[in-house]
């Protein structure tokens, strides 16, 4: 323009541009001013050249912008441009001199609509979550084995076929299909109406009321699935009294209905798997339980049987329990008569020594009898106790036990009864015998008799003493006689006196020692002094 | 014998769902196998278990596929059902 201004009138001096130079100049200007731009628009015609470059148009109501993504870059685009899609393209402007065109070299394409929808979806999710529609506490348990399953989906297509097929494989059930549009503007209201409609069915009515609902749809774009993000659908599912399994889109797609449903299945097939158990497995499990029932009862019976057997073996036989006691009693019974006899014999000896009375024997007899009775008494309760135990533990053996115990007791009692009188008789006989002999000895030793005898002897002795006194030589001496002694001997002859060297003469008033004079003459000489002195 | 489940009369079996019957059957089997119940109770448990098992089996035998499609009136309300053919 300045050139024109400088030379407005003619312009003949304006330098001439060559086309290429101008094109270069324009390119520099354009590239300099639009080296980085973000352009929002709808994708128009898309062409992928055999070279690998991607050509498409960006357009709005009034303009079209040619865009190209070179081969290497085209593969790395965030979103692959599709006709009608709202996108934001990022890149730079440049020119295409051969056709006098300018165009955009695109580095990346971002779906503008999805971003907007995602933002909208997120806002709605927050709002409904704040209402508590997605609370875990609201979730109802899925029935273990639903009787009727209501499926809300398109009656055409793979989804319903997949669900029915999988249900048939696992556990054939009654299925009610509620046909709905699964995309487009009618989708949301129809799905919401179907969920509410199933809930409105009266139990036991003409149309069976499902006890489980599956809401299903195959995979698709976020726009395709948009109906399942509808607030009306979310509320209908959240309010459903019948448990709901949602299976919308593929595993990576998450719609708001998934948040509201009681259970989310990644695919329609998975929904069928979550809905029913495998019948064959259940049949096997129940058969297994049946077997375990049989075995359990058999085991319980066998355990009891074995325990009964063990206890029966451990329980001693009635005879064995009583045997030892019975043997001891027999032994005591054998020893008792001998012991009694010994006691009686001992009593007799002591009686003979006059130190004891028959009370000892009586006591011994009594003791023996008492010990017998005690042994009997001690034996009786033991037998009864053992009998009671046995009866408690084993009714059958108890009868035998009681019988044996009774029989035994009667036998022993009878024997005791028979023995006791015999012992009494023997003892009484011994006592009577002993008493007789005692009486004999006792009588001979009566003290009165002894005294009489002693008195008689004393009287006799007195008499003799008196006689002796009477007959004593002292009276003679008193009458004038003398007694000649030699030592202790009495000298009665002169001859004897003549031979003595010393004589003693006893007078009535004392003794006098004399020496015989000379050798004694013959008998005469000796006799005369003797006579003389004697008389 | 104090357990409600083992004293329930046979008639109430009919009202038991498959899962309830199966759960009770499992508890009955477990108790019986534990072996610490009285013999009389063992027999009662066995009888109850046998009835539960029969009930479960009956439920399993009732497995029958029946697929219908809801027909809708003009107002969108369900009118009835027709056999459904998924093709």
Describe the structure.
The complex is a heterodimer of chains A (535) and B (87). In chain A, 55% of the residues lie in helices and 16% in strands. With 535 residues, chain A is an alpha/beta fold. Chain A is rod-shaped, with a radius of gyration of 77 Å. Chain B has 87 residues and is of the alpha+beta class. Chain B starts with a helix and ends with a strand. Chain B is rod-shaped and about 65 Å long. Chain A binds chain B through residues 143-145, 155-156, 160-161, 164, 167-168, 171-179, 190, 193, 197, 201, 206-207, 279, 282-283, 285-286, 289-290, 292-297, 299-301, 303-304, and chain B through 17-19, 22, 25-26, 28-29, 32-33, 35, 37, 39, 42-43, 45-46, 49-50, 53, 56-57, 59-60, 63-70, 72, 76-78, 80-81, 84, 86-87. Strand 7 (174-179) of chain A pairs parallel with strand 1 of chain B.
Shape of chain A: rod-shaped
Ranges of chain A with pLDDT <50 over ≥5 residues?
523-535
Considering DSSP H and I runs of 4 or more, what fraction of the residues of chain B is helical? 40-55%
Radius of gyration of chain B: 20 Å
CATH top level label of the domain at 16-71 in chain B: Mainly Alpha
Number of domains of chain A: 4
Mean pLDDT of chain B: 82
Q: Tell me the number of strands of chain A.
A: 14
- Overall CATH architecture of the domain at 16-71 in chain B: Orthogonal Bundle
CATH class (first level) name of the largest domain in chain A: Alpha Beta
The CATH topology name of the domain at 16-71 in chain B reads: Helix Hairpins
What average pLDDT do the residues of chain A reach? 82
Q: Identify the most extensive interface between protein chains.
A: A-B, 43 and 41 residues
Largest sheet of chain A: 5 strands, mixed, barrel
Strand percentage of chain B, roughly?
5-15%
How many angstroms separate the termini of chain B? Answer: 55 Å
Helix content of chain A: 55-70%
Please report the number of helical segments of chain B. Answer: 3
